[in-house]
Amino acid sequence: MRLTVVAILFAGLSTQANADFAHAIKTTIETQSTNSNSMEKDKDVISAEYIAKFSHTLNEQQRMYLDARALLTNDSSVYNAFDDNSATANIEDTDHLVFKLNEFWWQYDFAQQLEQNSLFIGLKRHRLSPYWLDEEIESLSWQVKSTRVDWQLGLGQKFSSFNSSTSLKEEEKSKLYAWAEIESDWMPYHHWSLKGLVTKQYKDINESEVSNTYSSAIEGELWWLGAGLSHNWLSKDDPTSSFAYNLQAIQLLGNGRFFDFDSSTLRQRSISATALLAGIRTQVTSVPLYLGVTFAYSEGGQDASSTFIQTALASNKGKYAGNNDALYQFNYAFDPDLSNLVTGSIFSSYAFDSDWSVTGAISHYQKADSSAPISRRQHRLHSETRQKTLGTGLDLEASYRSDNFLGTSLGSVMRIRASHFMVDDALDHFQDETRLRFDITLKL
User: Fold this and answer.
1) How many whole angstroms separate alpha carbon 272 and alpha carbon 246?
2) Three-state secondary structure call for residue 157
3) Confidence at residue 17, expressed as pLDDT on a 0 to 100 scale
4) What is the overall mean pLDDT for the chain?
5) Contact criterion met (CB below 8 Å) for 223 and 253
6) 81: which residues sit within 8 A by CB, 6+ positions away?
7) Distance CA 432, CA 42 (A)
8) CA atoms of 193 and 187, how far apart (whole Å)
9) If DSSP codes are grouped into helix, strand and coil, which group holds residue 410?
């Protein structure tokens, strides 16, 4: 983690005179009333995080960007267990001081008359889609935006967790990611898109260090191919429209070695499975009150060859509720993968003014195939094979943004997130689960 420490010191010593520098303090309190396994104890974490973001324009065509963190916490193992970006990492230490490097990349802009025509090299967060790729990864990418079409190409691999208290999981080692996307309008502000993502593990790994609950392929090659239609869904491109929609279809193909559902045996299998996602949202009145519904289906089967899985770099979180709050589509407390899952939700959001916003959702879950398990963070959860109904989720989030915190010149963001999941027949050996989170970020 020497690179992370150097990066934090480098950013901290920078000034506005020679670069764009922003830093902040983020304080977080989070509690989980039960874990996914009812035999484990409740979890609580308190952390104070220093965030340093450094952006420097080298010349008209080149720019570099850095996002480094240092945090104090009562328990780093609990902090990392709660962290959305730790799905690819092993939690190793319980240190109270943690260093992280979120992003560190170089950008080159080609001299063309386009909105964007840029090459990126380094550790960068890529937002291909919340259901495909939405995480930091060491990568080389080319992104182009114009008035008619946007597209991107990317190639990446996780070499490190860039966190002083974690290490990269064995199953993520030597795994190459490649992705492509093209998006255009079929009518003004109504988009069509085509996406593709492939993962290939090009080198043997130590299988003894991989849990037999791991749901993805070992030493294989997987392809996700998708098409979609959307309007005003994750961003409000058309400010005159009060309606938004999202439709996506994803086909998974490939092969690799998968663990059997009911044993630790690895078998070579070919896989073919489908997932569908849909959502609509409308502004109910002239005030910023939004109401919407989402639906998601992912295929399940008697073995891994017909069960849909996601990559470990998906977040399933997006700003689709109509305001600035990012909502976990599959319940913050439950947070399953889109795998052998059928779920629908009703959500609503309201923005009181430019400062306050509130978002709520109720969602229901069941298995697509009762004989197959579901997954969370690419690891299978045991469920009753004769039951389909998983449970019901409740989510509530409130945010406050201010440019003059307590009368000072400091900017701030305060957020409260409450989530509860009530288990049903298919998860009768689990307990109901509750997660509460409060965080406040002060922009220094």
Assistant:
1) 24
2) strand
3) 44
4) 90
5) yes
6) 43, 91
7) 12
8) 13
9) coil
d(CA 356, CA 326): 14
C-alpha span between 177 and 171 (Å, rounded):
13
pTM of structure: 0.92
* pLDDT band, very low/low/confident/very high, at 85 (cuts 50, 70, 90): low
What residue type is 256 in one-letter code?
Answer: G
Kindly tell me if the per-residue pLDDT of 329 is higher than 90: yes
What is the predicted pLDDT for the residue at 15?
A: 45
What is the structure's pLDDT at 96? 87
How far apart are alpha carbons 282 and 241 in whole angstroms? 9
CA separation for the pair 253, 424 (Å, rounded)? 32
13, two tokens: 């010593």
Tell me the residue length of the chain. 444
Q: Which of 210, 172, 169, 215 is nearest to 374 (CA)?
A: 215
Cα separation of 239 and 230, whole Å? 15
- The residues, any chain, with a CB within 8 Å of residue 395's CB and separated by 6 or more, are 327, 328, 331, 332, 359, 360, 361, 362, 363, 417, 418, 419
Please tell me the distance from the alpha carbon of residue 361 to that of residue 376, in angstroms, as a whole number.
20
**Backbone torsions φ then ψ of 321, nearest 5 degrees:** -80, -10
Please give the Cα distance from 386 to 398 (Å, whole number). Answer: 38
Q: Mapping DSSP to helix (H, G, I), strand (E, B) and coil, where does residue 236 land?
A: coil
Let me know: does 398 contact 358? Beta carbons within 8 Å: yes
Residue 111, pLDDT above cutoff 80: no
At 6, is the pLDDT very low, low, confident or very high (cuts 50, 70, 90)? very low
Number of other residues whose CB lies within 10 A of the CB of residue 57: 12
C-beta of residue 394 within 8 angstroms of C-beta of residue 434 = no
Tell me what percent of the residues of the chain surpass a pLDDT of 90.
Answer: 70
Pairwise CA distance, residues 317 & 344, whole Å: 15
